[in-house]
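Entry type: protein chain
Record version: 2
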Amino acid sequence: MSRSAGRRRRGRELALRVLFELEGTEKEPRPALEYQADDMGAPRDTVEFARTLVEGTLEHVVNIDAAISEASVNWDLVDYGKVERAVLRLGTYEVLYEPATPVAVSIDESLELARVYAGEEAVPVVNGVLGRIARERV
């Protein structure tokens, strides 16, 4: 993995941690990002990439949640665990709103985050939902 790809992966991890922390709270994203970045020892470019992801996800969360709900089979958004929701929101944001990132990369990175933070059983669910969203995007 290239150094740039590694930093982008860490940026996604940082964004996931922030989205997880913010869900269901009235917290502001900037202090959460600063806290999590400090905790991870993230360099400035990683933090800036994470900021783009967090702000974009939060800006488009209504459309993102609608896309996830539409792509979910037999599940409501509230049925997912908090980590899975954060991973799905982050991955959906990238698939729908970051055209410079290849869809396969967005999905693969989301699967890795799901595996690490939610467990192996979350991977097929995240893959199925993001795959449906990606197919609808085309």
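Comment: The chain has seven helices and no strands.
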